[in-house]
Amino acid sequence: MVDDQIPQYANLLKQLYIFQGFNDVQIAHVVKLFKPFQVEADKVVFVEGTQPESFYIVYKGKVKVTRQEKQGERLLSVLGPGEYFGEEALLFNRPRMATVTTLEPTVLLTLNKAVFHNLLEQFPSIRTVLTVTAESRHLANKTHFDWLGEEEVIYLVTRKHELFFWTALILPIFLFLASIPILAYGITGQGSTWMSRAGILVGFLLGALSVVWAAWRAIDWGNDYYIVTNQRVLWLEKVIFLYNSRREAPLTQILAVNVTKSWFGRILDYGDVEVRTFTGGIRMRKSSKPDLFASYVEGFKSRATYLQRQMELEGIRRSLRERLGLPPENGTPPPLLMKPGFRTRPRQEITPGSLRDFIDTLFKVRYEQSNVVTYRKHWLLLLAKTWMPLTLMTLLVAFALYQMREFYLGTEGFFGSIPMLFFYAVLFMALFIWWVYNYLDWSNDIYQLTPEQIRDIERKPLGDEIKKTAPLGSILSLEHSRDGIIQLIFNYGYVVINVGETRFVFRGVYNPDQVHQDVSDYIEALNRRNREIEAEREREKMLTWLMTYKTERELLADLENEANWQVNPG
Length: 570
Known about the structure:
alpha+beta
């Protein structure tokens, strides 16, 4: 390793979370173990399925991580300066799970297999971090997070503690156990024929309900994730068919991270992690390993802040060099340069009003498409609108089936005949149209949050449409409430948004805390974009002053030279 490169490599290692807490002596020891490896663009570093030989850190350049699947090659991530890869196969002693290829001329810092394992023996904290990262990336690759940016890398994925998975199954298990003696009573036929049939029916229905309930609880637990990437902290929450939420906070906007654990939580290692930002915060409840999660957030927050400062300084230097007519330094930006913000991967858009769109959002009370969040009123309010036609349809079907049975058994006459069945079908269709009208009346009454505006849209089926909009920048205050025991139990209520003298009221929305947080996050994102634009203007203004000063200095120097020539023409 060239001596004059060691300080630069050491500066890189200091910013990595795996070396968090290392002093200068330890960093100096570790950096000497790494060997630089220069690779041209479009060269394969290693291939999926091969045996692992080294651990890698990107010093300069970029690499892409891909995997072969049935439908073709899948891009997993793009790694830039300061990101590492190759740890999973070395840690778990298995073949490479992906192929890594350079996207541009790249410098990698490498550790061979023996040195890597020796380093883990010397510093067990590195093994802990790398193991958690490898497990998190493995889970993320299986889950296919479509919001992940091309240059965004997941470092930690956790869920609620497993204790709450098992406690969520207690009631379904008790219901299943209760169904067994009822079913057994019906099968053994100890009572009358009617009682036996009722026992079989009730026992079967309770057993099936308990299995479906348990499966729903298990999937619901598995759909909640707490995530740390190299750019942000996220809480993903999904309720099947009803709700899909993503709360996030950019690392550079985080003010503090707090951990709260009960006495029982200290024993089993679970608790609440609250990430505070300028506009509020994200509270990740019942998180497994909350101290580890908080440590990751703090570590990557420091790194992101450092990268942002480097980016701003580099932007000023490059703009100044361009104004002065100087060539770029080495033709490439320095290591650890991070682009502002993050960009999600392109995904297939759903055409508004399409059949796919309708099916995908049929009963959802919150969904997001192309950075526009749409809220509907709570499903309980849908039930209040549609319970009458739904009840009448159910009774009509039950009555029709009963009459058909009696007709074919010969105990009834006209009511089970073909003409009456046609009458039942017409009546059922009328009730169904009634239900659809009420559903559309609920579905078309929406509230939307865009990167620039809030919208309140009310559209009557076959009737008028009323739309109110307001810019996010004009919002003065936010508040939300739940009124009464019903709203508290079913978690819905009101969100009031004050815009000048106008009040936008999002009525009956599910989880008003989430809606409040969404609006706050979008306001902060808008303010962040405005601050970036203002910073660019200030930079341009500063450069204009510098260039004007340079021009005036050159003009003054020319005048001085001309005066000296006139005094001393020889």
